[in-house]
Write a structure and sequence with these properties.
heterodimer; A: 74 residues; alpha+beta; three-stranded antiparallel β-sheet; elongated; B: 404 residues; alpha/beta; seven-stranded mixed β-sheet; 12 strands; globular
Chain lengths: 74, 404
């Protein structure tokens, strides 16, 4: 599931970069559910969804991650 | 030697072997109200005949069919001649839209519908637009985060020339959110566009809507058998292109099996008699589920918390798939649903949740049965609420996502 891999990546990157500023993650996915689920993940985890780009055979979802953003929420 | 051919050997089904008590929290497709079940069984003997035959058996069937139509028509506040029985709710819904569009074929062919309508509206409309190579033949009006149609876009959509039919649900069967029918009908009516209202999820559970030109229901929503109900208000221009004879007022090609119609009418009477108390009870139970689900980590409870169907709720949890949740609850005796209510494909996310922009995976949908169908529903909901947190946590840890 794209959001699981996204969450793992963000967790690992953030663990090594707590004092750094925001960084950008690009999720490449063919799963049509990602179109709803990646923005929903951002909303639920307090991260910023920048946008989606249609590319050949897949979609790229761009997320700006702030390592100190509060986890959880609704 | 058997006294008769053993035939299919299906016979009466064996009771499911299970040590766990089953708890029905997915009542979108039944089971029947117990009184309607008895009526159905009796009607199989009394009302089996073709209602068009002139012999005594046929006349009995006709009388039972007329009586069934009268009961449901009275309940909906319409005349019997306005009401037809169709084989299923989705069939009736597709036919409802078809009939309005065909009757207006000289003015255009454009459909306006909310993006969360049943696939019986959206799929054929999309297919027609594709065949005509004209994407404008369907305008799927967006909804907000709660699933409510954007009225400004809806109003604008109704002004587009060539728009001949508008379709909107009374409430969504997946997330429960009610739609603003009065305003939507006023906007469509201002341009002479009839409004088809899909009340398949709400009839018998929520007040009967009256802002519609064509109304569609499914007897399953009020504890009846699968049976479509199509009501065309007098004066609305409606014509079925395939009408061959005056079957069900020219709205279908085969009359209903009378026992089904009678069971549907019986279920209506029964549900109607207790509807206010049932709605209050299920509304409170769903509020309990909403509260319990809202406390789960990384979970969204979707749909309008107040302006909603009394008996439906959906929530989605991050990092788990719906099938795993359904399986985990099933093993504990809970029957719950997941994903789209109206497509069989598990690969496509629910178009309703996607249109709302909410999480489409890890989705659990509860549709409470009528209390008469499941007398233990209050206890079942309490136990389900208690089982929620440990079940979701267990599925997350099984999938190795417990630490995310």
């Amino acid at each position: 599931m794209p959001v699981i891999r996204l969450a793992r990546l963000v967790r690992d990157l953030a663990a090594g970069a707590t004092d750094a500023g925001p960084f950008t993650v690009r999720v490449l996915a063919t799963d049509p559910a990602a179109a709803a689920d990646v923005p929903a993940w951002c909303r639920m985890r307090g991260q910023r969804f920048v946008g989606a780009e249609q590319q050949a055979g897949h979609t790229a979802y761009v997320i700006e991650v702030t390592p100190t953003a509060p986890a959880g929420g609704h | 030697m058997p006294s008769h051919d053993p035939g299919t050997n299906v016979g009466p089904p064996a009771a499911p072997v299970s040590n766990t008590r089953r708890r029905l929290l997915d009542a979108a497709s039944g089971p029947l109200h117990p009184v309607a079940r008895d009526t159905l069984v009796a009607a199989v003997s009394a009302g089996w005949a073709d209602a068009d035959r002139l012999h005594a058996e046929g006349r009995t069937a006709r009388a039972l069919l007329d009586r069934s139509r009268e009961v449901i028509a009275t309940g909906l506040g319409v005349r019997p001649a306005e009401l037809s029985f169709l084989p299923s709710g989705p069939t009736a819904l597709e036919r409802a839209v078809d009939g309005v569009r065909y009757a207006a074929r000289r003015r255009g062919a454009r459909t306006v519908a909310s993006a969360v309508e049943h696939s019986a509206v959206l799929v054929p409309a999309r297919a027609r637009a594709a065949r005509a190579d004209d994407a404008d033949l369907l305008e799927a009006v967006p909804v907000d985060r709660l699933g409510r149609v954007d009225l400004e876009v809806w109003q604008q959509a109704c002004t587009v020339p060539g728009t001949v039919v508008a379709a909107l649900q009374s409430a969504n069967g997946e997330v429960g959110t009610r739609q603003p029918l009065e305003a939507a009908r006023a906007a469509a009516g201002a341009h002479g566009i009839p409004l088809v209202v899909d009340a398949m999820a709400s009839l018998g559970r929520d007040p009967v809507p009256d802002a519609w030109d064509v109304l569609v229901g499914d007897a399953r929503s009020w504890g009846g058998p699968p049976l479509g109900v199509l009501v065309v208000r007098e004066g609305v221009r409606w014509q079925w292109s395939g009408a061959r004879a005056d079957v069900e007022h020219g709205r279908t090609d085969v009359g209903p099996w009378v026992p089904l119609a009678l069971a549907a009418a019986e279920a209506w009477q029964q549900a109607r008699a207790t509807s206010l108390a049932d709605a209050a009870q299920t509304r409170a139970l769903i509020a309990e589920v909403r509260t319990a689900a809202g406390r789960l980590p990384d979970t969204v409870v979707v749909g309008d918390p107040d302006d909603r169907l009394p008996h439906v709720v959906t929530f989605s949890s991050l990092y788990v798939d719906g099938e795993a949740l359904v399986g985990a609850f099933d093993r504990q005796g809970y029957a719950v649903a997941s994903g789209s209510a109206c497509t069989s494909s598990t690969l496509e996310p629910s178009h309703v949740l996607a249109a709302m922009g909410v999480l489409t995976h890890g989705n659990v949908r509860i549709t409470l049965p009528l209390p008469a169908v499941s007398p233990g529903v209050s206890a079942d909901v309490s136990d389900f609420c208690a089982a929620l947190a440990p079940t979701v946590a267990a599925v997350r840890s099984e999938l190795g996502v417990g630490d995310l």
